[in-house]
Design brief:
With 265 residues, the protein is of the alpha/beta class. It has one domain: NAD(P)-binding Rossmann-like Domain (Rossmann fold, 3-Layer(aba) Sandwich). Helix content is 42%, strand content 15%. The chain has a 7-stranded parallel sheet, with helices on both faces. The longest helix has 26 residues. It is globular and about 55 Å long. The protein starts with 15 loop residues before the first strand and ends in a 12-residue tail after the last strand. The relative contact order is 0.15.
Length: 265
């Protein structure tokens, strides 16, 4: 009798994964985890040179075939080209990770321009719909086809200083839930609500060193900020057969959230 392997369902052999925003940080960790589990991976990133470099590193680390290319997910032409190249190189797309997303801080939420709100929506919400639509013909042919999105905890617990990003991520939750019901038995769609994961992106978003230091020690149930691999582990579960009974969900990966007690310490 063959020995039972509880990790077998986490394998991604015969899968082709497209990971947007995969050149660094959380996206890189997701791409590495998928490749390590046996998937062939295309890393698509606005920085094509970085995507190619990251792909080469992950390929060397995992032994899987990993490629990288430039792609602006707010461009229809770029997305079509990226999906076509992924299908040409690997024979299709079975696993999509919509990881691209970014926002910046504002002191006054009511002073945020309409243009900034719209641009945030284009990047954080519409891009996921665009890439999903482009991948649809390939996903519908694949076994255990999945779309997993990088959401944010601020999409359900709004941060007024990141109002444009919060609103766009909230819209992403609703959009992808609708698509999960649309695809139903054909494609599983889930969104991971990511908490504080300290990356260089926080500085670019306008948070100074003091703010970043405060975020590094959150008052959550685990007592620490997240690491990219913490998030990647959840994506691997959801995209693999191990998550085959999970669809239409927004799943928190955030260290357990804030501790709640009524009696002062």
């Amino acid at each position: 009798m063959a020995r039972f392997d509880p990790f077998a369902d986490f394998r991604m052999d015969n899968h082709v994964a497209l990971v947007t925003g995969g050149a660094q940080n959380i996206g890189e960790a997701i791409a590495r985890s998928f490749a390590g589990a046996g998937a062939r991976v295309m890393i698509a990133d606005l920085n094509g040179e970085m995507a190619e470099g990251t792909a080469a590193t992950i390929a060397a680390q995992t032994g899987s075939e990993v490629r990288g290319m430039g792609c602006d997910v707010t461009s229809d032409a770029d997305v079509r080209s990226c999906v076509a190249e992924t299908a040409r190189a690997f024979g299709g797309v079975s696993t999509l990770v919509n990881n691209v997303g970014w926002g910046r801080a504002y002191d006054d939420p009511l002073a945020v321009s309409a243009e900034d709100m719209i641009e945030s929506y284009k990047l954080n919400t519409l891009s996921s719909m665009r890439v999903t639509a482009a991948c649809r013909p390939h996903l519908l042919k694949a076994e255990n086809a999945t779309v997993t999105n990088s959401g944010s905890l601020v999409g359900i617990e709004p941060a007024f200083d990141f109002i444009a990003y919060s609103a766009a991520k909230a819209a992403l939750n609703h959009l992808m839930l609708g698509l999960a019901h649309y695809f139903a038995r054909e494609v599983r769609i889930n969104t991971v609500l990511i908490g504080t994961v300290l990356t260089p992106g926080y500085a670019a978003a306008g948070l100074d060193a003091k703010a970043q230091e405060a975020l590094a020690h959150p008052d959550n149930l685990t007592g620490r900020a997240g690491q990219p691999q913490d998030v990647a582990n959840a994506f691997l579960w959801l995209a693999s057969r191990a998550g085959s009974w999970v669809s239409g969900q927004t799943i928190k990966v955030h260290g357990g959230g804030r501790r709640i007690r009524l009696k002062p310490e």
